[in-house]
Specification:
alpha/beta; binds guanosine-5'-triphosphate; binds magnesium ion
Length: about 270
């Protein structure tokens, strides 16, 4: 790590129950969304869980480097219209830290504030936590009185008045099947990577057909043909001469994760 801190390891939560317990321990919930796909990565279930527990939510629109500024601004307006405090963020470059801390301070019911970071896999929770922790962070004593799955919740002091629960709250699923599947499955763990890759390609082509040419050097709009061409270009064939579209499908999913595919959603007209 650049700042010498250990990367926060990703903890797969056992269940929604565990997430509910963490929500109860926090004063403020940061819901980290991938700004490329905010509607698909937000979780109505977590939002209502927080609302029931009376905990304010701040939406963190992370990966703001991957969408044009005007699109990010529209998404901010979109979520603010729904009643969420919303902050753009580039965890990777540690941009937005003071704005986010100010938002936490202004929304928090008490000091010091205990913050919980939640989000689907790969939205950038660990990177957000590391950005908030910065260089001056220090571990504090475990949160008292925890039972069950979480024996002791580690708190990190981000500032005198802000502490962060050092367990990223992995949301097990969102309302969107594709994001749930591709974020929650390791690339080599798919039994059938073609189905999600085809759906992903459809969504990408729908928003920005040029993304395919930019990433792979050919312009083509049919998802299956795209997979075939990727396999052919790389010389990936089965013994019977058929292109290995399963391997090509994994390439597409990987290139979505690493943002080689230039894809982001535009907000619906407000
Ligand atoms: N471009 C860009 N990439 C980011 C940003 N923040 C995080 N990432 C990348 O997104 C990927 C996932 O980041 P993590 O912080 O591991 O995400 P996570 O939500 O903790 O993921 P899990 O632990 O698997 O749930 C990594 O490759 C990060 O480098 C950002 O602001 N911009
Ligand atoms: Mg993580």
């Amino acid at each position: 790590m650049r700042n010498g801190l250990k990367k926060v390891s990703s903890v797969k939560l056992a269940s929604w129950d565990t997430l509910a317990k963490l929500v109860n321990k926090a004063d403020v919930i940061l819901e980290v969304l991938d700004v490329r796909v905010p509607l698909e990565t937000h979780s109505v279930k977590v939002e209502s869980m927080a609302r029931r527990a009376g905990k304010p939510i701040i939406i963190v629109l992370n990966k703001a480097d991957l969408a044009p500024r005007r699109v990010v601004l529209k998404w901010i307006r979109f979520f603010e219209n729904l009643g969420f405090k919303t902050v753009p963020f580039i965890a990777k470059h540690r941009r937005g830290v003071s704005r986010l801390k100010d938002a936490i301070r202004s929304i928090s019911p008490r000091k010091p504030t205990v913050v919980l970071v939640v989000g689907l896999p790969k939205t950038g929770k660990s990177t957000v936590i590391n950005a908030l922790k910065g260089r001056a962070s220090a571990s504090t004593s475990p949160y008292p009185g925890t039972t069950g799955y979480t024996k002791a919740v580690q708190l990190y002091k981000v500032d005198e008045d802000i502490k962060i629960i050092d367990t990223p709250g992995v949301i097990p699923s969102s309302e969107d099947w594709l994001e749930t599947l591709i974020r929650g499955t390791p690339i080599d763990g798919f039994s059938n990577p073609v189905k999600p890759a085809v759906e992903l390609l459809k969504r990408i082509i729908d928003q920005n057909p040029k993304a395919i040419e930019k990433a792979y050097g050919f312009s083509e709009r049919d998802p299956y043909t795209i997979l075939e061409l990727i396999a052919r270009k790389r010389g990936w064939f089965y013994e019977d001469g058929e292109p290995m579209i399963e391997e090509a499908a994994k390439v597409v999913i990987r290139n979505y994760h690493d943002a080689k595919l230039d894809f982001y959603r535009k907000p619906p007209q407000i």
